[in-house]
Every structure is written in C-alpha cells, then in structure tokens.
Design a protein that fits this description.
With about 400 residues, the chain is α+β, with helices and mostly antiparallel strands. It is about 70% helix and about 10% strand. About 30% of the residues are buried. The chain has two domains: about 210 residues, no CATH class; about 150 residues, 2-Layer Sandwich (Alpha-Beta Plaits), CATH 3.30.70. This is GGDEF domain-containing protein. Keywords: Membrane, Transmembrane, Transmembrane helix. It comes from Zemynaea arenosa. InterPro entries: DGC-Regulatory_Protein, GGDEF_dom, Nucleotide_cyclase, Rev_trsase/Diguanyl_cyclase.
Length: about 400
C-alpha cells in the first residue's frame, strides 16, 4: 500500500490534516523571509513613486504623499513586527498578508482618487494595481481561493472608483476604463493560473522531499538494526564477541588518552553443562538469560558486558583508585548475583562463577592481551575452586 505522501503527489488540494500541518510548518521560515523582503521592496516602490507624483499630479500632491508615507510606515512596522514575532505571524498568515495587500491596493486607489481629470495619475496609476496583483500571486503563500478574493476586491474597488468618483463611464475615458480593466483582470487571471501551478509544484516537492526523508530514515534504521544484530547476542541481548571487541578497543583508546585504568573480568559458569545435559537446552537458555540480566544489573550503565559464547561472559569497566580493591568488590558482587538460583519449570537451577581479572596498567592497552590474561586467571580460579571442592 503506498504511503499517504506518495498517494498525494500530483494533487494541489489540501492534504490530510497531519500532512497539511507538516507542509505549512515547512513553509513557515520561507513565509517570514518573503514577507519581510516584500515589505521592504514595497516601501521602496511606494516612496520612490513620490517623485513621479510631482509630474503626474497637478493637485492633491501633499495628500498623495501623506498616503504614501502612511503605507510606508505601516509596511516597515509590519515587517519589523513579523521579524520579531514570527510564530504569531505564521499563525495568522492569511489574515495579515491578505489585509496588507488590500492596504497596498487601496493606497494606490486613494492616490488616484485625489488626482484630478487630465492628470497622468488619473489614467495610468491603475498600473500599480497590476504590480500589487502580480506580487499577490507570486510573492505570497495564500491559498488560491484567498488570493482570488483579494485580487477581486482590488479590481472591484477600482471599478467603483472609476465609475463612482472619476465618472469614467460617462465621458470619452470609457475606452481607458475598459483597457485598464482588461489588463487588471488579465493580470489576476494569469496570476491565478501561475499560483495554481506553483502551489501544485510546491506540494509535490514537499511530498517528494518527505518521502525521500522517510526512505532515508528507514534505510538508516535498517542499518542500525543490522549493526545491532551483527554485534549482539540474540539470546541474552548482550554484546557478542565482535561487538564487545569493538567496544573494548574504544574503551582502551579512551583510557590510554586520559591515562585511565581499564579493568577486564572474565566469567565462566561452573555447573552449567549438567543443567544443559539433564534439563535440556531450554533450561540452559533460561539460566544464561537470567545470569546475563543479573550481571548487567550489578554493573554501572557505562560498563560494557558481552557474551563471548557458550557460558562465557566478559566485563570491561573503567576503574577508580584503588584499582585492585574496586575490581575485587565488583567480582564479589558478580559472584554473589550469579550463584542466586534460577527458577525454571518448577525447579531451582544453580550455577557458580569462576572469574579472572586483568587491568590495563599491568597488561597494557591491548585488547587481546587483556582478554588472554583475564582468561588465564579465570582458569586458575576454576582450578582452585575444584581443588577446594575435592
């Protein structure tokens, strides 16, 4: 079954709620950046056109400049506020952006309204509405329906101005009104199609990116799981020989760099073979699993425990001074926990631990040498225990 991301590719409609939220969050940073930059550009355009007012208006110049000043101040103030309150802006993005674009358009229409018949501003400043419409469809992330409403309101307001205030429908300027309306409506139609196309591609790009990200995460997870399986014993969950050797090398390298002392404890279970022979491998597995948990529970989280195979376990741990005493206390604790009976199928099964130790200050920072030394001492301990038992 395809993922919801893949299934949604090709659609410019809203996604399911959870995916739509991800998509909008993904756009948040871009929304803020584009809004601030657009505000600065709009402020520059509004202010620079004040020079053209001198030549395009015979009356109402001061009123036009006051309108421009008000829009510029509002613009820069909005950009400053958004830059400082990004989360609030993103939460109310549609209302803020739609409202500001209406203000830009209404500001242009107000300047046209204070001009007089015959002024250049009277006939051609409508082109500023085309600029606003272009920005509306290319510099915002409004939904197409919202952008269409804003663009329609700007066009409708211009027609009310042209017919109600300028009376362009009653004079020879009717042709100018029709031409202006043609270009204004055309700008909105072209912009709307452009916005639909961009919206579709933006959503497809988001879906593909999310699908790729999830595939990469799955691949990384599969690699981690493969590495875990390769380095861990499936029965006890402890590190296997290869995994323990790698961690031991890391600990030795770290200890050598910090002049620390690393201790190694080799553990062999006495009495384990009879359990396997008499009670079966299921009983033996139960004992191994219980012993592994007890060993892990006796040690610190930073200590490393592995099962080398069969009934052999090994522990690596950093030692504080006095090293020998610390290592001796740990060995006693491990011996005590190992000898605790394990309940299986109504029976109590008991094993004992033969332990051998080695430290990096006497055997050097060589993993193989440490393991060999600890192994030899474990066998010495086993021989002594057997001799005492005899």
């Amino acid at each position: 079954m395809p993922s919801p991301f893949v299934a949604a590719i090709g659609s410019s409609r809203r996604f399911a709620t959870a995916v739509e939220k991800q998509y909008q969050n993904d756009l948040a940073r871009e929304k803020v950046t584009v809004f601030v930059r657009t505000n600065i550009l709009c402020a520059i355009l509004y202010a620079s056109f004040a020079v053209l007012d001198i030549f395009a208006m015979s009356e109402g110049l001061h009123a036009a400049w006051l309108i421009r000043l008000a829009v510029v101040v509002l613009n820069l103030g909005a950009g400053w506020f958004v830059a400082r309150h990004e989360c609030l802006f993103v939460r109310h993005y549609t209302a803020v952006v739609a409202g500001l674009y209406l203000i830009w358009g209404l500001g242009i229409e107000a300047i046209i309204a204070v001009a007089v018949p015959g002024d250049l501003a009277w006939a051609v400043y409508y082109a500023g509405l085309i600029l606003v419409s272009t920005a509306l469809y290319t510099w915002t992330y409004l939904r197409p329906a919202v952008a269409m409403v804003v663009g329609g309101l700007l066009a409708a307001t211009y027609w009310l101005l042209a017919l109600g205030v300028q009376k362009m429908g009653e004079r020879h300027e009717l042709a100018v009104l029709l031409a202006n309306s043609y270009f204004l409506v055309g700008a909105n139609v072209v912009g709307l199609f452009s916005l639909f196309t961009r919206e579709r591609f933006a959503r497809q790009a988001f879906l593909l990116k999310e699908t790729l990200r999830r595939d990469i995460e799955k691949g990384e997870q599969a690699i981690r799981e493969k590495e875990h399986v390769a380095e861990h014993d499936p029965l006890t969950g402890l590190l296997n020989r290869a995994g323990f050797q790698r961690r031991l090398d890391d600990l030795l390298h770290s200890s050598a760099a910090t002049s620390g002392v690393l201790g190694l404890i080799f553990i062999d279970l006495d009495g384990f073979k009879p359990i396997n022979d008499i009670h079966g491998h299921a009983a033996g597995d139960a004992v191994l699993g219980a012993v592994a948990q007890r060993i892990r529970g006796t040690l610190r989280a930073t200590d490393v425990v592995g099962r080398l195979g069969g009934d052999e376990f090994v522990v690596a741990l950093t030692l504080a001074a006095p090293h020998e005493k610390v290592l001796h206390r740990v060995c006693e604790a491990l011996a005590d926990t190992v000898r605790q009976p394990v309940a299986f199928d109504g029976r109590l099964l008991t094993v004992h631990a033969s332990l051998g130790t080695a430290t990096s200050d006497e055997s050097g920072f060589d993993g193989a040498a440490l393991l060999h030394a600890a192994d030899q001492r474990m066998y010495e301990h086993k021989r002594r225990r057997k001799a005492r038992a005899a």
